[in-house]
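User: what does the whole thing look like in 3D?
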Amino acid sequence: MAAARKKRAAKTDAEVGVRRVKAADMTNVIELDAHITKVPKADYWNDVFKRYGRQRLHERFFLVAEDRVDRENPRLLGFIIGEVRAWEFGSTPCGWVFALSVDPDARLHGSGRALLDAISAAFKKAGVSKMRTMVERNTMLQMLFFRSEGMMAGPYIQLEKDLD
Amino acid sequence: MRLQISTQLAIFAALELAAREGQQLSVADIGEKYGVSSHHLAKVMHVMGRAGLVRSVRGAGGGYQFAGNARRTTLLDVVQLFEDANSAEREGGAADATPEGQALRQVLSEIDDIARATLGSITIATMRKLVERNASGNGRQPKTGQQRPRGELAS
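Assistant: Here's the predicted 3D structure for the full assembly of 319 residues, as structure tokens:
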């Protein structure tokens, strides 16, 4: 399975296109996530698809990037998921990105940037002017990417405690 | 957070040199812009040279070139050349053994961790974008001239 995925996402001069997810994409989405996180969770992703790929689509965006060099057989390169969230602890509506994944074998071809551009445009169209996300601060790959796209620390800070 | 003058100068020098790939600038050129003596800046450049971030170019019109990878070199890489980014780890004496001292160190460590994460996630290339955005005054991402893949949402 991994070999097939790698073959599909082999490094080439990709022509990156972004569109909304379809049910037929979910096998590749689940496979890509399992490859990256090492934790297969098909049920979780199928639930995410029902909520973000089918409901309230005017403010929920589950987008996929694909390589369209071969128009007959476009290859999934990655995906991004976000929604318009409002009034959490007083926050005015903002675009919240909670998932972004790009095939490691297809990185550095602009897929992540294309996905972020697309969801930014979708958020703007939905009427919000601020986009937020939360990244584990030691996950440098994601931190460096979001920083390079102009994202800065916002006014909220994540807090946590051990539940004894 | 406050950075030492040498650290700030090193970051400024890296930004100036990275903006002129393949060209060189003299310490006098950089020093003039930031109002600092060539002598002070030369010491800073020496440290950066030893770290492989800049290289000196000899001869007429000589100076310094950026020798690092602007998309890989972070602010933390530069800052750590000149100061301790783990200030909370320093010995604080007998007070550290007290619950109060430990609580204070816990809070200071949190501040240090956040500072390190911030400095470690911003590259010289990202800083250049920020500089250009501020210079343009419109708060938008600068255009790099590089063709971006299609990012619009196709129906």
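In plain terms: The helical segments of chain A are 2-8, 26-37, 42-52, 111-125, 140-148. Chain A touches chain B at residues 14-20, 61, 63, 109-111, 113-122, 137-138, 140, 143-144, 147-150, 153 (CB under 8 Å).
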